[in-house]
From TrEMBL:
Keywords: Methyltransferase, Transferase. Pfam families: Methyltransf_13, Methyltransf_14, Methyltransf_23. Residues 246-405 form the C-methyltransferase domain. It comes from Bosea minatitlanensis. This is Methyltransferase domain-containing protein.
Length: 411
């Protein structure tokens, strides 16, 4: 494979952060009739830039191939909908959004977020590259343009009258291969006094809690606060606040606006997080090169549990078909011989097979029929929500298992 360069600063990439072997695309679910067909596997190697410290994957597939027909629909997670409703209420109150405002969401998925602004009478626009997901938003009355976001798209949207008072970009900045083009689009589309909010998994939490399963090909970049602040600044955007969120195992919500817009002073939270990341070594290579050592230990522990359960005659099923679960199962080499099936609330995943491992995906009520001894929670960040939904598991002595940060059997 030819040498690659940092997608932010163009420095050569030479330092490995994590090597998870060969895996399929995490959301490339397989139809049962295609179970015997070949499947494409790609190297899942993650580097850290020696110069700017951006953690990033090699490009192995085009965005068109990954996102044009997408299996993830945000609206099927009750906890994510509740999070989105709180966000909308918070932004309306904090920034005085009204019927005269415009809210644009980049990577708007099925309209899960914009619906809450629309209900408040605020004009909205979604920008979503996956046509099948955008169609679901349109059916719900959310105006959506099917396109990838960047400089060209931002100029066209601005020319159409869509300059934004608020741009929301939740869990998307990690998904873009051309990072500079993408972020430059925000500066173009944002009104002079507008606000940009970005939400993304916090790299510091990944490092601290061994969240290696959040690595997959759709995630091109993994951000510390120090790095995202530099990226935004390079495109004329200044961070003025930051919040720590529990979502996705620990995320950041970063607030930014035009660097030349007056009246906004950076909050104490900004200075505090900068200081913490510097103190914990986020500007030093050592903290990144140590990460790979923990990954193998998790693999050993999960395989020991699953093999031990099988040898003891126990049945194991899984809950969820998230991208993180597919990374974990493929890296560990786990298939239907160790996990009978998994379940998911999304009908778009039910009846299909997990990529690579070919574990069947069923509806959640299959758990009540099969009565497994153990339920492995693949979206471990939602474990409390899932344990509540699947509480009847305890009635036949079943137990829950989470794999991250380490394998743990829960009552």
């Amino acid at each position: 494979m030819t040498p690659c360069k940092c997608r932010f600063c163009s420095a050569p990439l030479t330092t490995i952060f994590a090597d998870l072997g060969m895996t399929p695309l995490a959301n490339s679910f397989v139809a049962p009739e295609d179970a015997a067909e070949p499947e494409a596997f790609y190297p899942l190697q993650i580097y850290v830039c020696d110069l700017c410290k951006l953690v990033q994957a090699r490009d192995v597939e085009t965005p068109d191939a990954i996102f044009t027909d997408y299996a993830y629909f945000s609206g099927f997670s009750p906890s994510w909908l509740a999070h989105s409703e709180r966000y909308a209420a918070g932004m309306i109150g904090r920034f005085g959004l009204s019927q005269a405002s415009k809210v644009v969401e980049v990577a708007s998925n099925d309209g899960y977020l914009l619906q809450f602004f629309q209900r408040a009478g605020i004009p909205v626009l979604g920008v979503e590259p996956a046509a099948n997901v955008a169609a679901a938003a349109e059916r719900c009355g959310i105006p959506t343009q099917v396109r990838f976001f960047g400089r060209a798209a931002a100029r066209e949207l601005a020319a159409q009258g869509h300059r934004a008072d608020l741009i929301a970009a939740n869990n998307v900045v990690a998904h873009v291969p051309d990072l500079n083009d993408f972020v430059a689009g925000f500066e173009i589309l944002l009104k002079p006094d507008g606000v940009l909010t970005l939400e993304f998994p916090h790299l510091l939490r990944m490092l601290a809690e061994n969240q290696f399963d959040t690595i997959y090909h759709e995630h091109f970049s993994y951000f510390s606060f120090l790095v995202i602040e530099r990226v935004l600044a390079a495109h004329g955007l200044a961070v003025f606040d930051v919040e720590r969120l529990p979502t996705h195992g620990g995320s950041l919500r970063v607030y930014a606006g035009h660097a030349n817009a007056g009246g906004r002073q950076a909050s104490e939270a900004v200075a505090a997080l900068r200081s913490q990341e510097k103190a914990e070594g986020c500007d030093e290579l050592d903290v990144y090169t140590r990460f790979a050592q923990r990954i193998a230990q998790t693999k050993f522990a999960l395989l020991e549990f699953l093999i031990g359960a099988r040898r003891a005659g126990k049945r194991v099923a899984a809950y969820g078909a998230p991208a993180k679960g597919n990374t974990l199962l493929n890296y560990c080499g786990v298939g239907p011989e160790l996990i009978d099936f998994t379940v998911d609330r999304s009908p778009h995943k039910q009846g299909r097979l997990l990529p690579g491992t070919r574990i069947p995906v069923k509806a959640p009520d299959e758990i009540l029929k099969a009565k497994p001894d153990y339920l492995l929670i693949l979206p471990w960040n939602l474990k409390n929500e899932i344990m509540e939904q699947m509480a009847p598991l305890r009635s036949w002595g079943g137990r829950f298992v989470v794999p991250i940060p380490e394998v743990e059997i829960l009552a």
